[in-house]
């Protein structure tokens, strides 16, 4: 087992540091030709079917659901298609309105999650086209779907998903961009710019992982005994906040809440006191000013703001007790980078608490029963 960990103390740590390579494998040959995205690959859906989709429905569980949430923003913004997304265990029991013309995307790392498979089957029975986004060749999801797009993250052993998540986000962004191309929704220059941004993601991830260590350690040392963390974000920063909160909860057993920052005043603000760390996803975006206002509200209650920021934007540091900067990229692509410090922070805290991060209590890597 020590050999399998390749010198890392845990599988989760190894898998977090494999993210640059995993992304490179997932991305590169799909953006190798010219300035566009190529998803015309074996097992994938016929592009004529992609072009005909009138609506997208995303179903998934856990971390895969968070990747789906990011995919929704990309598909709506770039390809101008309506997107519905639901947790698979909810979708399958709500007699959903779905049928021909709908493209249903089941995102499942393992390809074996019972609820996601059931949601996909239901949609297919009702006449929808079903696409699986999975990391495992030959998994049940690949057999139940009309087409498959693989994440190529390699085997993930740690129960808490890390590299499969960033690769799922990348696949959803590639799909969104391809849909935009097929539908003629974005100018060629914007597509070229986004493709260039996607190509740079693996090296940006490597840089971020290399630089974040000391700042994350300081924060983990300061906060590892905390008993509650609040996570806030807006727009694509919201799924990042949800995922950061899930990571911490899963491996450190600390209770967390994650909220749309604008919704804070409708509840979570009542939880804040001088003991509360509040993690704010405050990377550059058109909604950054709004996030900063929320950070000010948090500080006015005496709570402690830890902000995920974009390198080079020094303004945000004035509104936070600590910052975790990540490399700059197009703001729609930022989630892949912004989640990294949150994975590392959850890890640093859980390890300081002496916990088994690879196999947290009560959790399974793959949930094949309801
Ligand atoms: C379990 C795992 C999570 C995962 C979820 C969905 O809860 O512990 O890490 O996100 O299942 O799994 P899937 O294989 O469908 O992505």
Keyword list:
16% strand; binds 6-O-phosphono-alpha-D-glucopyranose; single chain; 12 helices; 370 residues; 5-stranded parallel beta sheet; alpha/beta
Task: Show the helix and strand layout.
Layout: H1 11-17, H2 19-27, H3 47-52, E1 55-60, H4 62-79, E2 83-87, H5 88-91, E3 102-108, H6 114-125, E4 129-134, H7 140-144, E5 147-150, H8 163-183, H9 188-223, E6 228-233, H10 237-252, E7 255-260, E8 277-282, H11 288-300, E9 304-310, E10 322-326, H12 335-352
Helix pairs in contact: 2-8, 2-9, 4-8, 4-10, 8-9, 9-12, 10-12
The structure holds 6-O-phosphono-alpha-D-glucopyranose (G6P).
What can you tell me about this protein's structure?
This protein has twelve helices and ten strands. It is globular. The strands form two sheets. It has a five-stranded parallel sheet with strand order 2-1-3-4-5, sandwiched between helices. By secondary structure, the protein is α/β, with parallel strands linked by helices.
Number of helices: 12
Helix-strand sequence: HHHEHEHEHEHEHHEHEEHEEH
Based on secondary structure, the structural category is alpha/beta
How large, in whole angstroms, is the Cα Rg?
A: 20 Å
Morphology call: globular
Low-pLDDT regions: none
Q: Tell me which oligomeric state these chains represent.
A: single chain
Euclidean distance between termini CA atoms: 31 Å
Subcellular location: Cytoplasm
Subunit structure: Homodimer.
EC number: 2.6.1.16
Catalytic activity: D-fructose 6-phosphate + L-glutamine = D-glucosamine 6-phosphate + L-glutamate
Outline:
This protein has helices at 11-17, 19-27, 47-52, 62-79, 88-91, 114-125, 140-144, 163-183, 188-223, 237-252, 288-300, 335-352, and strands spanning 55-60, 83-87, 102-108, 129-134, 147-150, 228-233, 255-260, 277-282, 304-310, 322-326. With 370 residues, it is α/β, with parallel strands linked by helices. The chain starts with 10 loop residues before the first helix and ends in an 18-residue tail after the last helix.
